[in-house]
Amino acid sequence: MTGFQEPPFKKVKNENGFSSDVSNDGQQCFKSNNGYIMKNNIQNGGPYSKQCAGTIGLEKSGATQNAGHMKKILKQRHSLPIFPARQKLLEELKKNDCVIVIGETGSGKTTQIPQYIHEERWDRKGTICITQPRRVAALSIAKRVAEEMNTNLGALVGYSVRFEESVSSATKLKYVTDGMLLREAISDPLLSKYSWIILDEAHERTVSTDVLFGIVKAAQSNRNCPDKDPLKVIIMSATMDVDHFSNYFNNAPVLYLEGRQHPIEMFYAKQKQDDYVLSTMSTVFQIHKESPAQHDILVFLTGQEEIDSVAHSIRQVAKDLSLAEFPKLRVHPLYAALPSHQQLDVFRETAPGERKVIISTNIAETSITIPGIKYVVDSGRVKIRSFNPSSGFDVLKVKKISQAQAWQRTGRAGREAAGYCYRGYTQEEFRAMALNPVPEILRSNLASVILQLLAVGVKNILNFDFIDKPSPDSVREAVEQLSVIGAIIASSDNLELTPAGRRMAQFPLEPRYAKAILCGPEHGCTDEVLTIVAVLASETIFVNPSGKKELAIRARQKFHSVEGDHITMLKIFRAFKSSKENKMWCHENFLNYRNLSYAVEVRRQLVQICQRCNIPVLSCQQNLEPVRRCLTAGLFTSVAELQIDGKYLTLSSKQECSIHPASVLFGGKPAYVLFTDLVHTGKAYMHINSIVDADWLYEVAPEYFRTRHIKKVCSAVGS
Ligand code: CDP
Ligand code: MG
């Protein structure tokens, strides 16, 4: 890709009402939901400046930064839009048990509000817990706040995300993923460790945040008695359906924090683009060539593979551009699965003569603020997981974003100065987009969350205080899935966890994987099942550099198992352990060292959970058939059967599907294939597969399969 298409954009007037934020008299302000505007003069910061400096002085233990650096940070903190409103905000927090705070991304909600509360010593009776939908946000924000407070991460400021934690008894500000807080509620529904719970990024409406709304609301009301410490709650968001939230939280006051949004010039595609990836890339170079300044570019695309490949192409093309003529391009991918050190790279300032291009998923929409962005290129697409009730599977699909998301993306260009936003879609396409995204709870598989709600003690799911109730059909479907794996017993109006279900809820995993682990002892192979589940919980362990794909596949051939991808992964993990977790060995075998190391850590933690639950961890050594039997016990609803015409149909819903070309089983025709995911890219592909035996299916779920007709088909290959 070297030549450029004609610029696909036309310019239109800034029509969204983005404008300079500062009100006429140069003051920042809060306004309440009844239209009352609470102005707060910048000079009226009150005693805060001194207090803040003093506070930072107090947190000297474990101090890591020099005085000059701290001064710079303090200056940055004081220049945030939230700072002048600090006093007003604290007054509202003092008066009310639950407050909703709305403010532009980057105004300082996530990093500052917990510090303000701490500076007032309002956390004496319990930690401040701040939830984030994404682990990368929890990690990077905790790191930033620790730096601002001049303390080591894991001391006063900590984080807790799935399989990774850095907290201590000194931790007062704890950034967690919403899923982690939900798990904590299982053993402590009153969330008694915390004096403040801040549910951040509420507009994202993840399933976990939605469920936490109900759990936190109940905990707050149950702690409202003389013998318990009260719980304060803050709901924070960049945008949201305010009335809906305020009504749900007993008419909680809404504080609008006016951010500093500079004017943004908008460009739309002149005509519909057939290939959004290609048009996104050509737009990046259009900007790069036409605007010699070094301002950075933020590009919104959809997923890891797409982003990595676009990053690679942009680097290739940039190499061909004359260095003298254009700034040097530094390309950074940004997605949730990126290793932490690479995630932190995107925050690093560009050197003189360089321009940064960040290619991100919707992660940079609201939860992460990257300084220095002047140009936003929006593909208008997002990858979302949604549940297909007719097939019974969650599928990851690239979809059009909503108008609310489009405006959030646009807003990233005007944080520090006037900016530009290039939309890879026409104005007509924009108008046809939904106004808001559909909350995840209305579109995904609810099996995990229902298991957790039962573990917390909620028996009647449909009566739970959901902000938006999931449909009875999707609840029924999830209840059926949980009963077929033996996690629950369903009676007419109540659901009861079985002892096995109670154990499954202990694992931070989808119930079907927990079930596979629970079957380990019976077959003497918990050790191997844990390994496979740990690898599945990590990001891909394979490295396939473009141009070297064949070489990579050949290098890994020696690990291939005729039994399928799961056993192949097991063999790789074992070899990695034999190599003494050697980085070079990974490199030679085109394996991802970090993701394998992460799997080692995940496995270690799963072993700990097994020990806590008295599940013996035995190994079956070289006879690996029992491992596939255990997987079948958990994943028997994800099995497809070979048809006479050579196609596969899923047993559960008779959906047509094929073996994914990346699977070691590709090209073969085993009679029954157990798959981990169904991936839809044009057609449905089974991803990460194992060969299973029809008899095992009857063995593990006789009731389930009695109603489903299984034909015996001979394997066309290898038999
Ligand atoms: O939560 P909200 O979007 O309102 O803002 P924030 O996450 O508290 O970020 C406030 C400011 O802190 C940003 O504008 C950045 O300037 C800075 N920040 C940073 O420099 N590095 C981070 N990892 C996070 C925030
Ligand atoms: Mg935030």
Automatic annotation (TrEMBL):
Annotated region (Disordered), positions in chain: 1-26
Residues in Helicase ATP-binding domain copies: 90-258
UniProt feature, compositional bias: Polar residues: 16-26
Pfam name, any one: Helicase_C
Enzyme class: hydrolase
Domain of life: Eukaryota
UniProt record, GO biological process: positive regulation of transcription by RNA polymerase I
Record InterPro entries: DEAD-box_helicase_OB_fold (IPR011709), DEAD/DEAH_box_helicase_dom (IPR011545), DNA/RNA_helicase_DEAH_CS (IPR002464), HA2_WH (IPR048333), Helicase-assoc_dom (IPR007502), Helicase_ATP-bd (IPR014001), Helicase_C-like (IPR001650), P-loop_NTPase (IPR027417)
Catalyses which reaction(s): ATP + H2O = ADP + phosphate + H(+)
Its EC number(s): 3.6.4.13
Assigned keywords, A-Z: ATP-binding, Helicase, Hydrolase, Nucleotide-binding
GO molecular function, one term: hydrolase activity
Ranges where the Helicase C-terminal domain occurs: 283-457
GO CC aspect terms: nucleolus
Name recorded for this polypeptide: RNA helicase
Name of the gene encoding the protein in the UniProt record: DHX33
